[in-house]
Amino acid sequence: MSTQISVPPQLLLERILTLEIVRVTERAAVSAARLCGHGDEKAADQAAVDAMRRELNKLPIEGTVVIGEGERDEAPMLYIGEKVGINAGPRVDIAVDPLEGTTLCAKNMPGSIATMAMADGGTLLHAPDVYMQKIAVGPGYAKGVVELDATPADNVRRLAKAKGVDVSAITVLVLDRPRHAEIIQGVRSTGAAVRLITDGDVAGVIHCADPENTGVDMYLGTGGAPEGVLAAVALRCIGGQMQCRLILDTEEKRERAREMGVTDPRMIYGIEDMAKGDCLFAATGVTTGSLLSGVKFRKGVIETETVVMRSVTGTVRYIKAEHRQLEKFHLD
Ligand code: VTB
Q: Which atom of ligand 1 is nearest to the CA of 101?
């Protein structure tokens, strides 16, 4: 009796790529981690970008960077539109943030990660590097339980009611920025708690998916659009709701967005508007945070921890790796 493979080739390849993208974020994280605490954000970011690009170019894909280090004229590497991979294999969209939380890494503070997402070609939102308003909650709530345009206080009350708890049991994660003063005040006015982070809202949004362990029920505030799309891919895999709006407050930004296909500058994007198709998400810890352990350099061994997610099955894997002989294989 012949053995039949019942998995379609596209899905089979995607399963293999799940591990391949782990290699990519691992290498980026190790390269950045060598510069942790050196106070040089640019150098750490560049190290992560170089490593990520080198690894992406080994993959059996026809990849296009849709969320990258910036637009072509300002970013020499991993710019939006750059082709990556060996130019054979499935046509995929790539979103990267080689070092999310450059300041955290430079200052050796918790929570910096190397992260990327991969999706069917043409299915990720092509967003310019502008700010984005974001609200996110985890899985298990009716659609629309919170809304981007509702007040922070309203959203907290609605979420508490849906969760069946008192508002005082709700915690909202917010980037610590002066622009968020009203949001913070609005949340606290209800009796709910605010948890402030200095950077790292990709991980911040992911926290909402597991409130029991993270203590975070909702993410609220304005952060980078690239980080928003990466977080949307992660939530697409693990469940949850997100609503976002690009902040296109100048004609120049609206023009850049138009060129990337954004027709309605005021549009509210849900998760499926930002990640329409099958997608993969991976993040490796650079410095230890509440999501992932950071890179550890031991004698002869480098340890990494990565989370990798796949939307087709919703599988989430935490991969702890021990890397040996990196020099021999010129892996970083
Ligand atoms: C956030 C945060 C990032 O940028 O997206 C933030 O998650 C938004 O920009 O880690 P500002 O720093 O200007 O507020 C980062 O802090 C850095 O990319």
A: 10
